[in-house]
Design a protein that fits this description.
Elements lengths: L3 E6 L6 H10 L1 H9 L2 E6 L5 H7 L4 E4 L16 H7 L3 E4 L2 H7 L3 H13 L3 E6 L3 H5 L3 H12 L11 E5 L13 H18 L2 H6 L2 E3 L8 H5 L6 E4 L6 H11 L1
Parallel strand pairs: 1-2, 1-8, 2-3, 3-4, 4-5, 5-6, 6-7, 7-8
Helix pairs in contact: 1-3, 6-8, 8-9
Length: 251
């Protein structure tokens, strides 16, 4: 049976002191999550990673991105080896903001995913369609391309360390929510596609998250869907109070 996963993506928010305060205050939440078989984590900025790891060791701590090379002349980048050296073992790859603002492609995501997996990371691979693609009924084709290219060369064993986050780009931070029916339809399609890329056994075991203006008031609606195993949450994960409200709705 797949465990539920609540993962907060802090994006470019929270100073180190704020991140530490959150982590310390969330120790009761990680205990509550463990009691209810729910996985709980956050993706801080690079600067907050070590502080959050040290302040709440029970919290999953993920990087928001990583480079596909171990070292070299890549000014401003952070390698997986550097993250691993800190004790980080999870990373997001391919978030829509990385794709939109920084030119991330399915091919570059694939290089990063394979590097991360080679280092033992768990990868949260983000997929989703833009408003234009949604309006033109291209959602499933876009998702298929993101999965088939992004996960090319990933072995069945490595699929056990993949989490997929479906985030319709038109819903992220806009207040526009995809219906629960749409979320289930696409997450079910993702699981079917993963079965063709690996095996039914592997796809049945993979956690698929929904993201896009997820709040305490709507998270339960999504989690009631058969193929939605959790949520990747932005703004609603920035305070302990809101994060706890999300967790409570998942219990």
């Amino acid at each position: 049976m797949r465990k539920k996963l609540l993962l907060g993506n802090w994006k470019m928010n929270l100073l180190v002191g704020e991140a530490k305060a959150f982590a310390l205050a969330s120790t009761s939440l990680t205990q509550k999550a463990k009691e209810h078989q729910i996985m709980l984590g956050v993706a801080p900025t690079y600067l907050g990673l070590q502080t959050v790891l040290a302040s709440n060791p029970e919290l999953i701590v993920a990087a928001q991105d990583m480079h596909f090379e171990s070292k070299g002349a890549f000014t401003g980048e952070i390698s997986g080896d550097m993250l691993k050296d800190l004790g980080v073992s999870w990373t997001l790859i391919g978030h829509s903001e990385r794709r939109s603002y920084f030119g991330e492609t399915n091919f570059s995501c694939n290089k990063k995913i394979k590097k991360a997996l080679s280092l033992g990371f768990t990868v949260v691979y983000c997929v989703g369609e833009t408003a234009k693609e949604y309006e033109e009924n291209q959602t499933k084709q876009i998702i298929h391309d993101q999965l088939s290219v992004g996960l090319q060369g990933v072995s069945e064993e490595e699929f056990s360390r993949i989490v997929i986050a479906y985030e319709p780009v038109w819903s992220i931070g806009t207040g526009l929510n995809a219906s629960a029916e749409h979320a289930q339809d696409i997450c079910s399609y993702i699981r079917q596609t993963l079965a063709t890329l690996s095996s039914s056994k592997a796809s049945d075991a993979i956690q698929i998250l929904y993201g896009g203006s997820v709040k305490p008031t709507n998270v339960k609606t999504y989690l009631l869907q058969n193929d939605v195993d959790g949520a990747l949450v932005g703004g609603a994960s920035l305070t302990v109070e809101s994060f706890e409200a999300l967790l409570n709705e998942m219990i």
